[in-house]
Amino acid sequence: MDIDGSDAESGDEAKGEDQQSAEEKPRARRGTGAAFSSDVERILLGPGSLASSFAKAREFINVVHSAFDSAQGAWAQSGAAEAAARLDSGLQSAFRGQGDAAAAAAASMRLMDQLTPLDRAVSEFAVTSQLAEQMAVSSALTSWRSALEANSRIEARLRGLPVPSPLFSDLAQISRTQVDLTDWAVLRAPGRGLLSETSGMPVAAWRHLVADAVDDEDELPTVVATGRTNLSLLGTDLLTSTDADPGLIAEGADRVESEIVEPWMAARQKVVADLYVVLRRIDPKIPELLNGAWDDINRNGPAAAEKAANCAVEALDRALRHAAPDDAVRAWHAENGRSAKEWEGQDRPPRSLRVRYLFRDLAGPRDLVVSQVDAFAKTFGRLRGRLESVKHASQGDLVAVQALVINAETLLITLFLSTGFPDS
Question: Would you say the pTM of this structure is higher than 0.85?
Answer without folding.
Answer: no
